[in-house]
Amino acid sequence: MDFISIFSIFILACFIGYFVVWSVTPALHTPLMSVTNAISSVIIVGALIASAAAGSATSKWLGLAAVVMASINIFGGFAVTERMLAMYKKKER
Known about the structure:
The chain is built from 3 helices and no strands. The chain has 93 residues and is mostly helical. Helix 2 packs antiparallel against helix 3.
């Protein structure tokens, strides 16, 4: 695939992701965060495999950037999920 095709797919995925996330009701945000964490873990595995198989240094740096960004998404998702679940706990008096 050429760069324009891959970039077009990336832009379309960004728009679809934006509209999916903003159209989900607040009650479904926690399951959605769990799904995005699972997808991010798949991205980490793919980035590790792709960067290990690549021979150039640029590919390895891009793989490192993908791992870092997916890790931020995973840890942020866990933090947001923890905060949302804490909102539903009973408060002790």
